[in-house]
Amino acid sequence: MAAVPTTPAADPQPEITHAEAFIDFQSVFLRYGQDDSFAVEDITLKLRRHEFAAIVGPSGCGKSTFMKLTTGLKLPTQGTVIVDGREVAGPLKIVGMAFQNATLLPWRTTLDNVLLPLEIVEPYRSSFKQKKDEYVERARALLATVGLAGNEDKYPWQLSGGMQQRASICRALVHQPKLLMLDEPFGALDAFTREELWCVLRDLWASDPFNVVLVTHDLREATFLADTVFVMSKRPGRILMRKEIDLPRPRDLEVTYSERFSEIVHELREKIGAIRKS
After folding, report:
1. Which of 66, 131, 202, 270 is most buried, by the most CB atoms less than 10 A from its CB?
2. pTM metric for this prediction
3. Coil, strand or helix: which one is 4?
């Protein structure tokens, strides 16, 4: 195995004990295949329970790799990943995921798409037939929360892009995961719809807090939604900056026009600009 490279230290993080941490990366490296180079290297960070974190950085820096390591879809070459007090040794069942494309199954209605995790994820799978009425009610309530009441029997092709993404978020949350992983979930939407869905996600998280890790290229999105923003370097990805977002909650879209909001976005943009030039 190639020698582990030394890396510059990330900005200091306030002390979080292992007991307080929900996600705990301890000197994590990952290489793909037999390549000597690392995709990510020396990632050490902790996220508190119910924390909303965003990961930003240049394309190819390892943001999606970070998601795979967190959820157990990839295991580290070196180091340890702990989630909810347990070392990650394979795919986690406590995770909901949503992506840039809604990936709804075209032959299933909106309601049936949302119900899908309950049909395939234990412990819900084994009780799905007996508790179907209860689960259907849960799915309908989620759809109503995101403004999709009345669309339960429509198919994906009958929904707008924004409506499909709302349904995708409901599908990611219907099994009440402790961790929601979002990979550019609003990147394909127009600006107005994107901001609308920021508020949907904000309200869902505020009503019943859970951990969120949002991977995004949109610095305004990260600043509006997150408690903490982590900036990653070019490949091999490292954490170069940890930025606590000191904007008070609850946040309204009006805050995006404030001087403090602009200062934070500018600081993040400057950091990423410097990374690109390095």
Report:
1. 66
2. 0.90
3. coil
